Amino acid sequence: MIEVQSISKHFGAQQVLRDLTFHAADGQITALLGANGAGKTSCLRIITGLLRADSGTVRVGKIDVAAQPLAVRRQLGVVGDREGLYERLTVKEYLTLFARMQGLTGERLRQSLDEVRGALELEDLWLRRTRGFSQGERMKVSLARALVHRPQHLILDEPTRGLDVLAARLLRRTLLRLRNEGTAILFSSHVMSEVLELSDRVLVMAEGRVVGAGGPQALMREAHCDNLEDAFVSLAYGSQREQVEGEPA
Ligand SMILES: Nc1ncnc2c1ncn2[C@@H]1O[C@H](COP(=O)(O)OP(=O)(O)OP(=O)(O)O)[C@@H](O)[C@H]1O
């Protein structure tokens, strides 16, 4: 479970997160929907420990991110908005490096590498250096890096951006399988069809707060809309914006 409790964040004079509270449960896919600049990436970066909140707490699997960032990283897989591939390394070398940094050795290391190579269809790329990889190839390697230590929690920032149909489909299939295995998945997206297909729960963010939360169907009912895009527009750009999710997770 990922628990975000009353986090706030300023950049200079700009307040980007305002007393933000929500949770993402194990065995569920939770989507963060919000306009450009709503604060999704800032929020995800705080959860992963890349950015510090001004106030509030984040717990991943009950561990406080600010107090024990390394312990949290062991439980967390992250596919970020900036791909950090090491272009001189082959896929195998790159994933081995990250798996070792997560403490995997010997048979466990070998098994984990075999698993991600098969699950993400990396066979043809395995011994290639990542320099010049296409967007879809880079995503597959990033996702493999995020999953190689079998984390209980997975965070993805706009994961299907720039992917072709087959790569996006592989990603969606992988997320649904992980969800069914009990992983807590939190992802941001602007693609309504993808959010509708994948999400058990949607958090609509506007101006650094959650202004709507629930299953896609429930959000549509709440907004009196028959599609998610209209419901999102109504909730995110409606005149009355109140934080609706204030309960401790
Ligand atoms: N390091 C930073 N320094 C200054 N301002 C920042 C920084 N990071 C984010 N911001 C600002 O905070 C606001 C929220 O940005 P953030 O990237 O969290 O939004 P987002 O919801 O992910 O947007 P998008 O959908 O466009 O990716 C934006 O106005 C952005 O310019």
Automatic annotation (TrEMBL):
<keyword id="KW-0067">ATP-binding</keyword>
<dbReference type="InterPro" id="IPR017871">
    <property type="entry name" value="ABC_transporter-like_CS"/>
</dbReference>
<keyword id="KW-0813">Transport</keyword>
<feature type="domain" description="ABC transporter">
    <location>
        <begin position="2"/>
        <end position="232"/>
    </location>
</feature>
<protein>
    <submittedName>
        <fullName>Sodium transport system ATP-binding protein</fullName>
    </submittedName>
</protein>
<dbReference type="InterPro" id="IPR003439">
    <property type="entry name" value="ABC_transporter-like_ATP-bd"/>
</dbReference>
<dbReference type="GO" id="GO:0016887">
    <property type="term" value="F:ATP hydrolysis activity"/>
</dbReference>
<dbReference type="Pfam" id="PF00005">
    <property type="entry name" value="ABC_tran"/>
</dbReference>
<dbReference type="GO" id="GO:0005524">
    <property type="term" value="F:ATP binding"/>
</dbReference>
<keyword id="KW-0547">Nucleotide-binding</keyword>
<comment type="similarity">
    <text>Belongs to the ABC transporter superfamily.</text>
</comment>
<dbReference type="InterPro" id="IPR003593">
    <property type="entry name" value="AAA+_ATPase"/>
</dbReference>
<dbReference type="InterPro" id="IPR027417">
    <property type="entry name" value="P-loop_NTPase"/>
</dbReference>
<dbReference type="InterPro" id="IPR050763">
    <property type="entry name" value="ABC_transporter_ATP-binding"/>
</dbReference>
<keyword id="KW-0536">Nodulation</keyword>
